[in-house]
Amino acid sequence: MSLHFxxxxxxxxxxxxxxxxxxSVYVLPAEAASPQRPNIVVIVADDLxxxxxxxxxxxxxxxxxxxxxxxxxxxxxxxxAPVCSPTRAAFNSGRYWSRFGVTTPNNExxxxxxxxxxxxxxxxxxxxxxxxxxxxxxxxxxxxxxxxGFDHSYGSLAGGCGPYDHRYKTGPCTHTWHRDDQxxxxxxxxxxxxxxEAVRWIEDQTEAPFFLYVPFTAVxxxxxxxxxxxxxxxxxxxxxxxxxxACVSHLDDAVxxxxxxxxxxxRRRQTLLVFFSDNGGYPTAxxxxxxxxxxxxxxAGPAGGSNVPLRxxxxxxxxxxxxxxxxxxxxxxxxxxxxxxxxHVVDWMPTLCSLAGYKPDRDLKWDGxxxxxxxxxxxxxxxxxxxxxxxxxxxxxxxxxxxxxxVHRKPEAPPELFNLTQDPNEQTNLADEQPQRVAxxxxxxARLAERDNDALADDKEPE
Length: 463
Description:
Elements: H1 3-26, H2 28-32, E1 39-45, H3 63-71, E2 73-75, E3 78-79, H4 84-93, H5 118-124, E4 128-134, E5 152-156, E6 177-179, E7 182-183, H6 190-204, E8 210-215, H7 227-230, H8 239-264, E9 271-277, H9 319-322, E10 326-329, E11 337-339, E12 343-344, H10 348-356, H11 372-376, E13 385-389, E14 395-400, E15 403-408, E16 416-419, H12 435-458
Parallel strand pairs: 1-8, 1-9, 2-11, 3-12, 4-5, 4-8
Antiparallel strand pairs: 2-10, 5-6, 6-7, 9-10, 13-14, 14-15, 15-16
Helix pairs in contact: 6-8
């Protein structure tokens, strides 16, 4: 081999090395900024009704949510529990709330300490985790979010609070405002404080991926809104109704601030954002509820949401109590559109864990399923059996395909059967016309409910 030929080989090798170095400097950082595993932000409203958002035709001003729905995927049949703590238990576990004996707003500890939650699962595969907002799955500091997978937590350990005093209902959990499970006192409006903490946490993240859970207390009573938000609704005559409308817009603005923080941090296109309400609206909720400290100081009157045109409200298993405004948004990855297949809050843990690359090392007995094919449009419909345990099991419900059965504990209350495709607002009870279908659905409901007993028996905490 000639010396000239060897020199040509050496020169070519150096050229290739230079090209490779240039490629690594100018291309790899762009790839690193787009991780395969997304950042995950889940925002939950409290008591926001189906008819309270602009993208459902409401007159209330929700421009940020409307844009997220328009540019993302609106979930037209997103189901939750009829009250708050059960929805939160299901979201954080992937299991129906009744598997933990939780069917009502709950100040007791909901989970065993060794429960694999969504946060602990994501944390185990390298996610940073934070909660800013309402926990309500154990309202004492020793039962706070840090015991269940969250690196950072802030807000209300209990339920909805006064907007400025941050006090829960009168009782042992009244003082509930905390940072990392330590009770604190702060000044400021509760919606702004929760949003501010979420924004700060996003800004502090120097590495991906992360999981941020933002369960707002808005629009739960009591509401007391700054004049800026009241001024948006000069034509609403009722002072308490005007307060509620202002609260909805304040919440919407807080969502916008979180989205803007993601954009400023250069994380927007790497972030999957989910939004839903924890249950349907409660139109007759009294803003001056005496259960809250100094409840009489708030503007008196009803300050609850609308579920129009759906039947029912919070606490009920009609669609208005359990079908809520919801969306998912991931720019550049999920195409805008509407998903019409039934989706349940228990589906989020299996779905998000799959996206994050988490594989359970044991059977977590999820009731939910991975809905990524539905979100991408690969699947538009799929057979589902869905189960709801109502507050105190006074009513329970099951859905199979288009058919939904509601069973009441009171013997004088007959079962109710609805075809949700033909009658989405549940106006016509078909139980008397279809006794065989009622019997079959009752059997299905009994089988699903029996798993509650099995779960509670298996889930007893060691002595």
